[in-house]
Amino acid sequence: MKTRDQEYRELFMAEALEYYDSMSRHLSELERNPNAGPALNELFRLMHNLKANARAMGFTDLGEVAHHLETLFGLIRDQERTFSGPLIRVVFAGVDALGNMIRAVGANQPLPDASALLDNLDRLVRGEAPVLDEVDEGDTEEESNRKMELSDLVYIQVKKLDNLLNLVGELVIDRDRIMTLAQEIGNPALLATAQHLFRISDDLQYSVMDARLVGVGVLLNKFPRVVRDVATAENKEVELTLSGQDVQIDRNILQIITDALLHLVRNAVSHGLETTEQRQAAGKSAIGHLTLSALTERDDVLIQVQDDGRGINTEAVRRKAVERGLITAAAAGSLNEQDVWALLFEPGFSMADKVTDISGRGVGLDVVKLALDSLGGQLRVESELGIGTTFTLVLPTSIAVKGALLIEVDERPYALPLMHTDTVLSLEPSQISVVGGVLVTHVQGLAVPLVPLRLLLHDEGDDVLPLASKSELDGPQQVLVVNYNNRRLGLVVDRFIRQQNIVIKPLSKPLDTIDLFGGVTLLGSGQVCLVLDVPALTRLFLAKRP
């Protein structure tokens, strides 16, 4: 297993070799035509990128040579130096030195001494003549004898990886069916072949998934400018801290949550952080602090947006929800703090009193919830008035394969993603009570409503669910407790089948319009199994509860 440092070194090497090849090509073009602006601009860009990458990896001397060449190309671009005479010889020697240094990094060897070259580059930057005796005359004999080298890095379109992953998903489904058949037939040779197929398809599946992983930093590193622009528009001082950029996640997941994360960050600066005057009056530092971080938790990736601002004013949210007609005053008064915060993510809800470029445009935090729902993710909210707020996005590492719990209702199997499952229970009727026409039990000291899953699946179009009665309970009740948006719901099922990884395929039209189902998968027996959408089930129960 490669270490993270080895992976970074390989990525650096692959990119650096490509940079070196491009530098040599553009230098030759510039020598033929000293006024070739595009070649000059590209050389400046390549030197800048190589400098930054080398310094980030700790290759100081390599970074210094690239930095001096970057400065020199900047002067040539600004017409303060001309690409002619001795300068050409030193620049070519400098690029050759970069190539030698890159190869030394790849061979894990000490970098060659570049002090004489750096001295000459310094002279050229100052407008002085270089010492040509210090230019390595062996380099020319080496632009003729050097072996051609190709980068180990292959760039590939994401849609090609998507297609490959879909094909692997099909293979996994057939693999499970073959394994089931082999176990039923009982032939030792067939079973051994099926087991081998299982192992190699498993390795193939995770290899393809691994190829789709990217560092969260490719998204997080775009936010300093966003924060700066919003803070300027809001006349606030904000310091942004980033951490966990190397945490790996599926590239498609990162794409899906981009708008959600952007909205949370803008919301934190606009609504969460106070103005300089307000912070000073509250005894805080004049500069607001915002932290964007990524970390792993078991099989999930957590992305957090944390500010040290005013916190969520629970009572103000409660009042605004009643004003906007989202909830009645009586119902709002009975909500706990977490339930009130959940109202922030209802469509169109906003605490803004006026419309600006940042807020009050009717596009609320519901975009965050919708993005998470599409991924089977979760949102956690922590806040303390006057101290600050933390939003945590709980995301799967990959959306290709999901852990799921298989259940049975009316002799039909269904799958529920493990992301939304809390626990499974076998409850005696004595552990269940009826409150307001709804079955209720207590889990870890909290009241959890129960509903037979068949009532939600076999929707008769009634506005409300029938009133529950304990007289209908016959023996132990098998309950799966799910959690969505900090709301727990106990689904009463006929039996639990097993837990397994599934490949979810989208439903075709017109079934894709049914909210309760998030897709379909095939079991090892070849049986079609619908994947239940926990957010949709929870919303349906809340809409139809007596």
TrEMBL record:
It holds the Pfam family CheW. It catalyses: ATP + protein L-histidine = ADP + protein N-phospho-L-histidine. It is an enzyme of class 2 (transferase). The keyword Calcium does not apply. Residues 194-399 form the Histidine kinase domain. It comes from the Bacteria. Involved in the transmission of sensory signals from the chemoreceptors to the flagellar motors. CheA is autophosphorylated; it can transfer its phosphate group to either CheB or CheY. This is Chemotaxis protein CheA.
